Amino acid sequence: MTSLSVAVRRDHELAAFDVVTAAQLAEHGLIVYTPDEHNTTILNWLTSGFFDHRGNIYVVDGVLGALTLAAAGVGVAIGSLAMHRIVMPELAYRPLHDAVADVCVVTISRSAETSGRIRALPKAFTLSAGDFRRSR
What pairing do the DSSP bridges indicate for beta strands 2-9 and 76-80? Predict the structure, then answer.
């Protein structure tokens, strides 16, 4: 099982909390990274009735897309705890307290990649739950 976290704009109301709960997400638009129809763990958790969500749910096929939308203020990105290793100055990352999902992560990268954000991605997925550090 993998712990989940959220990414929000630094000026978002949830950025003021050290930890975010599912109940706090009820009124917010959520951005979910689901790379294909077989990897819908987080989406299934959101729609299972576990909590009463009344906002929009946006499904994207890339973690960078989810984080970019969150940075633009579209909503709250939900993903594995490792996503906070992707540094975007506009974002604050918080652990999601009452949600655990079985998330399968596969990474592929080019050996001659020049983008710092893309080069950082494989390192992000080696992060364990105990390594989560609050970003401000």
Answer: antiparallel
Q: How far is Cα 88 from Cα 9, in angstroms, rounded to an integer?
A: 10
User: In this structure, are residues 122 and 85 in contact, taking their beta carbons and an 8 Å threshold?
Assistant: no
- Residue 76, phi then psi, degrees to nearest 5: -105, 120
Round to whole Å and give the CA distance between 53 and 57: 9
Residue 24, φ and ψ in degrees, nearest 5: -70, -20
- 75, with CB counted inside 10 A (0-12, 13-18, 19+), is buried
The model scores a pTM over 0.70: no
Instruction: Give the pLDDT confidence of 38-56 residue by residue, as tens digits.
Output: 556 676 666 665 556 667 8
Question: And the tokens for 118?
Answer: 């893309």
Return phi, psi of residue 38, to 5°: -90, -15
Distance between CA atoms of 79 and 61, rounded to whole angstroms? 12
